[in-house]
Amino acid sequence: MRYFYELIRKKIGYSREGRIVLSKEYKKYVRTPALLVPIKNILMAQLNFLEFFEDHELFLITKEVFLKISFLREKFKNKTFIYTHEGTLDKYREILTQNIEIFSKDNIITSIPFNIPNTFINKEFAKDEIKDYLKKAEVILENYPNLDFCLSIRIFEYPEFLKLYIPLINSKENIRILNLMDVFDVVSNYRKIVKLILQIKQELNNNLVLIASGRIIPKFYPILVYLGIDLIDCSYLLYLSAENFYDTIEYLLPIYKVKYLPCNCYACRGKLKELLKSKYSNEKIEQLVLHNLISAKSYMNKIKQYLKGEDFRAFVEKSSFDDINIISLLKILDKDNFKAIRFETPLTQKNLKIQCFGPSSYYRPDFQEFRERLVHNFEPEPWTKLIILLPCSAKKPYSESKSHKLFHNIIRKFPDFPDFQEIIVTSPLGAIPRQLENIYPVNCYDISVTGDWNEEEIDIAANMLIEIIKKYDVNIPIICHFEEDGYRKIINKVIPNVKNDIMFTYVDEDLTSSKSLDSLKNLIENYKDHITPKEVFPKNKDFLKSWHRKIVKVIDYQFGKSYGMKFAKNGITMKRTRNDTSLEIYEQSTNRFLGRFLKDTGQIELSLNGANIIYQFDNFSNTLIFDGDKISGNTLFRPGIIDYSLDLIPNNYAFVLNKSRKKILAVVKMLVGSNYIKNTQSGKIAEIYEKLE
Ligand SMILES: [Zn+2]
User: Fold this and answer.
1) Which of 182-191, 230-239, 276-285 has the highest mean pLDDT?
2) Do both 257 and 377 map to the same domain?
3) 20 to 30 A from 2, CA-CA: which of 213, 325, 388, 539?
4) Alpha carbons 411 and 524: distance in angstroms, whole number
5) Are residues 331 and 362 located together in one domain of the fold?
6) Is 274 domain-assigned?
7) Is the domain of 138 the same as that of 269?
């Protein structure tokens, strides 16, 4: 199978960085996401256009005149083109046959056009149109099996029509790109849009490149990329320019209203500025086209930059604030489709500050994954005899903050402090057992704290607290060291749902005043011996060390309940690395290297030894089955995988077993999730960081 699309990195939601491979031999690639810029005569005549788009890689052409060798192979030989035809399919077939030599070259891909003469058609008629299109497209695809094609998809506002296309797409390997021509035309149909994208990602090859075209303005680019769109066709801007609109990203302004040009492009610096006061003219429209395309391109560059190196989700949220439909779309995706999106979203991000803007951030998929994973995988330490609830701090990890250091001065004076379970209550993440304070996103989220909690934040924290407390003996007392009213409201919601006694410390001025801390000390003193825990002390006293407790819980968080205790059962020792970016973990009795705790993500990268200690071979989770007994190279590719568990998530760690499932061949960091593996036959799956030699 020839390569076409290669995934480079999965990002939050359906967003991804990748490349279209046009020729491996000549290393010819187009990086995605990218803007698909139309080439029209009106633009070709402008030197400024050619100058500005000199570095641009991908263009859309619709006129036969551009199919000439002199254009494609000489003038623009380093560019890539998608060609489509604006007329009938019959005419397109003719053009294809006449220019087959051109289309066999590696810098042009052709798109089978789906044009309809009239805009208003009823559902039955639309269905017939699609069937007719598919019949004709099938013939073309069969006639040219060695040519890569883009298939046009129109749904006429009926997402259920996608299923008409699915059999053809799944049966023809030379369909490499899908052009979603009218899916995003009516953004208020966000439910339909989400439904359609999910269907595409769950039922079709995930290595298909997706184009969004139609009535798309730059404001929607971030959410489109978040939805997994690889190429955005900006042709609609030509139409808007002709209608005298000036795009500022936030708004489309009629040019007559524009007094201050908020842009510094060729057009805005030059002729457009001069023409602002004059009447409509062709020249003015040409300048508008130029500005609109340049600003779209600049915006796309920003998106690409943020997708690569920043917290892209925050950018998507910010860009949604002035559009109700985008906010709703994001909400539907977060809340109703978490089950799908969790397998697309990397478990961790490195070295980023994650800004929470309020309600739009609460259910980010990485936050929700954190909550569900924690609630599902967290197990109480059996020796716990007291629970202490504390507020969060701005500084992360919490225990390095001034306030938490003061709390610890009190709590850790008790020699039996490892028997206390500290839980930090915070918005919007919820409730975090102290042992998990170093993991992503707990180690890097940021939210403006004013003390006012809204209902949603209160519910998130209360529900999570209830789930965690319910895992404990009902006789274990709970001490709350809280000041703000919001925390009170949370606890008021918790009280009717748990049986444990809940006490509040007396707070004088603030939580760290000597009177407040005294009150904390007294309550601990009074309640710490109310119950005798099931296990007073683990036999191995190391379990009581703070880092030891953390490692056990992080392993549980990553791989599942009770793995952590298994991992540490022979005792572990930790060593700081010289650059202080990680902690090396060794087995105490044998001094074998078991893995590494990485400070930036708060995750543990298990060594093969570590993996062999914890992995239960009858438990099919976090696992890939390799077709063979030896893996070569440092990358795991899709074709070598014969089976896989359904819980794989990008950036989590996993085990690669041999065909008989008796041996761990390698430990890997996932690049993709289970759904991608299910829906692809090629591409990189995981990075191997240790393997059997
Ligand atoms: Zn401009």
Assistant:
1) 230-239
2) no
3) 213
4) 8
5) no
6) yes
7) yes
Q: Specify the DSSP element, H or E, that contains 361.
A: helix 359-362
Contacts for 540 with CB less than 8 Å, ≥ 6 apart? 568, 569, 571
Q: Are both 474 and 505 inside the same structural domain?
A: yes
Which pLDDT belongs to residue 541?
A: 67
The C-alpha torsion from 345 through 348 and 351 to 355, rounded to 10°, is 60
If you search the block for the tokens 């020249």, which residue do you land on?
283
Q: What is the enclosing helix (H) or strand (E) of 135?
A: helix 123-143
Same-domain pairing of 328 and 362: no
Looking at the structure, tell me whether residues 370 and 274 fall in a common domain. Answer: no
CA gap 192, 296 in Å, rounded: 26
How many whole angstroms from 296 Cα to the centroid of ligand 1? Answer: 10
Burial of 179 (0-12, 13-18, 19+ CB in 10 A): buried
Structurally, the chain folds into a number of domains equal to 3
Domain membership of residue 372 as a residue range: 358-527
For residue 347, give the nearest of 374, 308, 379, 375 by alpha carbon.
374
Q: Is 113 left (phi over 0), alpha (psi -120 to 50) or beta?
A: beta
For residue 174, what are its two tokens?
A: 């030379």
Tokens encoding 680: 């692809």
Q: For 542, which DSSP code? A: G
Domain limit, last residue, from 501, 527, 553? 527
239: which residues sit within 8 A by CB, 6+ positions away? none
CA of 46 to the centre of ligand 1 (A): 15
Taking the whole predicted model, whether its pTM rises above 0.85 is answered as yes
- Bridge partner residues of 30 (DSSP): 20
Task: Please check whether residues 520 and 619 belong to one and the same domain.
Answer: no
Residues 6 or more apart whose CB falls under 8 angstroms from that of 142 comprise: 172
DSSP designation for 133: H
CATH code at position 595: 2.30.130.10
Interval between CA 34 and ligand 1 midpoint (Å): 20
Does the structure show a pLDDT above 60 at 1?
no
264 CA to middle of ligand 1, Å? 5
> In the prediction, which pLDDT does 96 show?
94
DSSP 74: I
The CATH number assigned to the domain holding 57 equals 3.20.20.105
* Residue 345 included in any domain: no
Spatial distance between the Cα atoms of 424 and 319, rounded to a whole number of angstroms: 31
